[in-house]
């Protein structure tokens, strides 16, 4: 059957041999599907030329061939929960969520699992639970976020200070390169580059990347221009800093793929390191503070005791649960009217051990005059407290009117010791622009999700949106922080990478992109050559 493409690309040539699903023509059904894929969880929206749901690896190879032949880009997509526009664009959106959703192999003894990229994080952990194992990184969208997207963004989440990032646990990726060849990048690789086919793209990548990273000038640039080492959340550009200090880069290539936003290759499988399940007893200290600044000073104290998590939620978010029929009953643990709450979690095999940990923290806080109430919660009480934090955040998404909290500077990260001063300076930036913001999330990792309230339906609001990010970028350079901690650059922050990293490092990013993908087949316009906001 002959199909007429809205963009005049000859999709009819691809369709007869494609085993999956393709949506590209001007029919009502195809246009409706394309509209569904025109946005993700970000503020960006752009109609894709087509949407493909590949069924096999061969289907993806055919898409790569087609994209190369017709100079169009492929946009890998999993659940579409990305907050920075990573899976938005006018190319072909390639959704792996439907057919690449299998758990392929579990090795409980060696603590690893092999999965396809469309496996949902929480579904994976449900399968792993009987083995006493879990995949640690956990996004707030873990009940729908998929492993492919988590690799693309180097996701981490609430317990990153103890369970690490996706990059920390990515042992191996199987992928397709821009020349349609299948490759495997493994952290356990013992294969020498001489064993790769002479003249192959895989061999070229290894040799030229080795040359780039062995150059002393490049090494110095990376060490000086990347965020300082105590910034544990760093997800801007390509992770060249993670590839330094080794004789061979082959085992480190999975670290480069993590956080690359689908711009270097197309992942078809992943081998993941697993962690033991959390301790039997988890206790949550809810540190009540009279100001946001005080809560961040309390965070620095709590971090000395190596908690599993240290999360902050401000009064603005907590107040949204006061009159809610369900969540107001979960506020039993809140004493008085705190301006901010620091929620610090500890774990051990016995409750007595957890209580001793909590006592040490609270004693230290009191000695420094930080906080005024410190309830310690266990079991269901702890779960209800976490629900207040999560529920309040969800409720502010339903504010009446056009002024809404926006994802913009929510992913900026600094060293934990710099967080109080950074947030104080950021408050002055927001005051300058006459906007209010909510503050919450990963204080223990040096990253507060700060969401300014902006009306993006006005020209003034859009101008303010960009100006706030530009001013925040200047502030981040002062603290040698990271523009993105876990949500990625995408369309949102990509424009500012040259400013943050410097033009020479940005030129290295371009070299890496052109080495893997010289024709821009994979997610063009992300990380390098991003269109202005």
Write a concise synopsis of the structure shown.
This protein has helices spanning 11-14, 28-36, 57-70, 121-128, 147-153, 160-163, 166-169, 201-214, 216-225, 253-257, 292-303, 315-319, 351-367, 379-396, 419-432, 459-479, 490-493, 497-501, 503-516; strands at residues 21-23, 50-53, 74-77, 92-95, 103-107, 112-115, 133-134, 170-176, 182-186, 266-273, 275-276, 281-289, 309-314, 340-348, 376-378, 403-405, 437-441, 449-455. The chain is α+β, with helices and mostly antiparallel strands. The chain is globular and about 70 Å long.
Please provide a written account of the structure.
The protein has 533 residues and is of the alpha+beta class. It has 19 helices and 18 strands. The strands form 4 sheets. A 7-stranded antiparallel beta sheet has the order 15-12-14-13-17-18-16, sandwiched between helices. The protein has a 5-stranded antiparallel beta sheet with strand order 5-6-10-8-9. Strand 8 (170-176) and strand 9 (182-186) form a beta hairpin. Helix 8 (201-214) packs antiparallel against helix 19, helix 11 packs antiparallel against helix 15 and helix 15 (419-432) packs antiparallel against helix 16. It is globular and about 70 Å long. The two termini are 41 Å apart. Mean pLDDT is 94; it is low at 1-6.
């Amino acid at each position: 059957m002959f199909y007429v493409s809205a963009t005049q690309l000859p999709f009819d040539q691809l369709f007869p041999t494609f085993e999956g699903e393709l949506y590209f023509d001007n029919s009502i059904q195809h246009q409706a599907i394309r509209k569904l894929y025109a946005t993700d969880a970000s503020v960006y929206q752009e109609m894709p030329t087509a949407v493909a749901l590949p069924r096999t690896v061969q289907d993806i190879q055919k898409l790569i061939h087609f994209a190369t032949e017709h100079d169009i880009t492929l946009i890998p997509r999993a659940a579409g929960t990305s907050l920075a526009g990573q899976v938005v664009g006018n190319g072909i959106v390639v959704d792996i969520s439907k057919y690449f959703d299998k758990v392929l192999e579990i090795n409980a003894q060696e603590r690893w699992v092999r999965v396809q990229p469309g496996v949902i994080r929480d579904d994976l952990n449900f399968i792993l639970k009987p083995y006493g194992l879990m995949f640690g990184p956990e996004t707030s969208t873990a009940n729908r976020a998929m492993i492919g997207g988590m690799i693309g963004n180097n996701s981490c989440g609430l317990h990153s200070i103890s369970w690490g990032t996706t990059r920390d646990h990515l042992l191996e990726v199987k992928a397709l390169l821009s020349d349609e060849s299948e490759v495997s990048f493994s952290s356990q690789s013992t294969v020498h580059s001489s064993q790769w086919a002479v003249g192959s793209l895989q061999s070229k990548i290894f040799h030229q990347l080795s040359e780039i990273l062995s150059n002393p000038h490049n090494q110095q640039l990376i060490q000086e221009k990347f965020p300082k080492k105590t910034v544990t959340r760093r997800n801007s550009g390509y992770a060249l800093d993670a590839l330094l200090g080794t004789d061979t880069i082959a085992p480190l290539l999975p670290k480069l793929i993590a956080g690359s936003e689908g711009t270097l290759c197309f992942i078809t499988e992943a081998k993941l390191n697993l962690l033991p399940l959390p301790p039997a007893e988890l206790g949550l200290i809810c540190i009540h503070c009279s100001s946001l600044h005080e809560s961040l000073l309390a965070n620095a104290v709590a971090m000395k005791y190596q908690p599993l998590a240290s999360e902050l939620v401000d009064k603005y978010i907590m107040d949204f649960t006061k009159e809610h029929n369900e969540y107001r009953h979960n506020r039993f643990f809140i004493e008085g009217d705190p301006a901010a709450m620091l929620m610090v979690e500890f774990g051990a095999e016995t409750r007595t051990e957890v209580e001793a940990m909590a006592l040490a923290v609270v004693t230290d806080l009191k000695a420094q005059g930080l906080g005024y109430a410190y309830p310690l919660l266990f079991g269901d009480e702890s779960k209800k407290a976490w629900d207040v934090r999560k529920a309040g955040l969800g409720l502010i998404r339903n504010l009446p009117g056009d002024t809404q909290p926006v994802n913009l500077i929510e992913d900026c990260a600094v060293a934990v010791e710099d967080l109080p001063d950074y947030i104080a300076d950021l408050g002055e930036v927001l005051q300058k622009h006459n906007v209010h913001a909510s503050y919450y999330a990963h204080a223990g990792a040096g990253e507060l999700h700060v969401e300014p309230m902006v009306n993006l339906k006005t020209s003034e609001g859009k101008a303010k949106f960009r100006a706030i990010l530009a001013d925040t970028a200047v502030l981040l350079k002062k603290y040698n922080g990271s523009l993105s901690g876990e949500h990625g650059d995408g369309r949102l922050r990509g424009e500012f990478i040259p400013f943050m990293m410097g033009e020479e490092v940005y030129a290295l990013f371009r070299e890496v992109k052109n080495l893997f993908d010289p024709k821009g087949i994979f997610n063009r316009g992300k990380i390098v050559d991003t269109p202005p906001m």
